[in-house]
Batch of 2 targets.
Target 1
Amino acid sequence: MQSELDHIQLSPLLVGEWYKDGLLVSPDGPLAIQRPAPPQPALVQPPAPPKTVPPQPAAERAPEPAPQPPKASQPQPAAVQPAPEPKPVPAPQRTPEPAPGPETPDAYKFLGKNGKKITILVQSPGIPFLPDNALTFLTKILEACRLTLGDVAIVNAATAPVNITALRRQLQPSAILLFGLEPTAIRLPINFPEFKIQPYDNCSYLSAPPLTHLVAQTEESKLLKSKLWVCLKTLFSV
């Protein structure tokens, strides 16, 4: 049965305006556009479950290898280094030695006790102090001056060179008698003749001939002994 709408004719232009997105207009009339079908979602295959390996019986397990001890490392031969060539050692330079000075003993040996700080210097080679005749003569002279061997210190300069500085430091004399010695022989900075009392640096000096000249039984020795006696009386206030 046809309705009244079946007789309505639509112009191609009107149809194209209505269905411009779904129709193609050709000279013969509008054509339907075949739209592509929407893409179907791809089927996602679920992951296969992991295969379980049944545990092997204890008897079927392969025995684990026993741990092997570590092998000792073989010592490597040490590389032989060539010996270094010896370097030439320079010859040591010798320091010039100072010229030897006069020997001075640490302490002078003396005869007596030095009770009154009187030093008597003699020159007697080959013996410790004095020959017997010279010692006897000297003892009598000291007795005439009211002195003894205990009051003096007799030093033989022939046994060791005498330095006046060291001698005074050791014996601290107030008077020094020189028999057969020049003042310069004991390093005194002054010189004076025999039989003259010479004061110097808080000390009194008296120079006389050797005792061997005084003990001789001659007229000359008598004259020398008289000169010595005069000086000793003045020096010791006799």
Note: DSSP finds five helices and eight strands in the chain.
Target 2
Amino acid sequence: MWHVPEAEVGLLTDIHGKAVLEDGCGTAYVSAYVAGAGGKPVGLDNSPAQLATAQRMQEAHELRFPLVHGIAEQLPFRDESFDLVISEYGAAIWSDPYLWIPEAARVLRPGGELAFLGNSVLLQLCVPDHEGEAAGPELLRDQFGMHRFEWPEIDDESVEFHLSHGDRIRLLRDSGFEILDLIELQAPNGVTTNYDYVTPEWARRWPSEEIWRARKK
């Protein structure tokens, strides 16, 4: 959201030769980055339209890696097929974590890593229901019971999934992961965004995005 460079975050520093699943790939730009860094990506998405765009991007940039139509909750891959599963928005917020995280664990090899980026817990508690309104300094909803978020004022069919930090930690541990890091991203000075639900000023004070890293035991 804030164009924080990968060189600063350090999420994809050791992917040469590794089998990487982008879980909910959309246009597969993360997979394209992985391919350029010498990794072996596979992009999975449940939208044929997104995969068609990803295919056009592959042709435009002369990249070749598999694009698979499927859902994160029931991955069409064998056990222990990947060294890294990564989701940048995609499965991280659009799939039920109680289904997609155990599936990610299943397809990871022992010692493989899971990394995912999504909206922060605090943003979800502060963002209004109405489209075009940005998060403010007040808590608007309960943290206890966080799971399924529906946005009828924005889009009748829009559903997202977000967990509190405690619930997320327990789910990762129950799925066989050890937690490596939780990176709470801060908006750099002078940035802008096209998103209307959070301002740079808000995201300078509180994290609007967070990245989780975990390793399969």
Note: The first helix runs from residue 6 to 9.
